[in-house]
């Protein structure tokens, strides 16, 4: 193993500070562009799942027609309006949306800065894995973001918009509440899809084994189905569509865990 010159605790903090500064500047830089084009982002990205012609709704509507099933996905508009009830509400929504756009778009660079910070503590051959680590991690994150935006977000919005306890209640959703649904669905799925990466490192550190994951596979399946049932409308098709990719991730994680265990002797993380 090649070691750099020994650094004091304060030296490590100084290095970390500059990594955080560069990461923050990247988020701000991308966020400025997002703020400038806020009208496009809100009209064609944030508010798109509110419209009846959203691709996901059209897909489920066509499936319903094939099986001659009446579906809420075939509605031209969803039964709710978005409102703003505070003076700074729309401005605040613009700022935070720009920041989160900076984090999502700038994710590969954030991972790059993270890798640069931890790389001095790795073996030489491990540091050569930087490009693969960044590419795979970023790919999984963006796949999760797309899954969250096109599957979780519209299914959640459609279900909650059509859920009613009485005809006396009219849905007038606050803008913060609506954006929170979109943001949490997208960001959470982005990180959920990092499961194989997390499993890899936990395996390298000796916390997880393939036997453990296989032993609790049935429990994981139940949890995935429960999670799918919570975030989707009460129909089997939607639940299955959400559950399959997540469970595939679990199975991929078992394979990665086995692979990491086999290479543990030659690839160790310090």
UniProtKB/TrEMBL annotation:
Any one GO molecular-function label of the UniProt entry: proton motive force dependent protein transmembrane transporter activity
Main localization (coarse): membrane
Membrane topology note: Multi-pass membrane protein
GO cellular component: TAT protein transport complex
Domain of life: Bacteria
UniProt keywords, alphabetically: Cell membrane, Membrane, Protein transport, Translocation, Transmembrane, Transmembrane helix, Transport
TM spans (from-to): 20-41, 93-112, 133-152, 181-203, 215-234, 240-261
Keyword Flavoprotein: no
Any matching Pfam family: TatC
InterPro entries per UniProt: TatC
Alphabetical GO biological process terms: intracellular protein transmembrane transport; protein transport by the Tat complex
Family of the protein in this entry: Belongs to the TatC family.
Primary role: Part of the twin-arginine translocation (Tat) system that transports large folded proteins containing a characteristic twin-arginine motif in their signal peptide across membranes.
UniProt-listed HAMAP family: TatC
The protein's name: Sec-independent protein translocase protein TatC
Organism: Capnocytophaga catalasegens
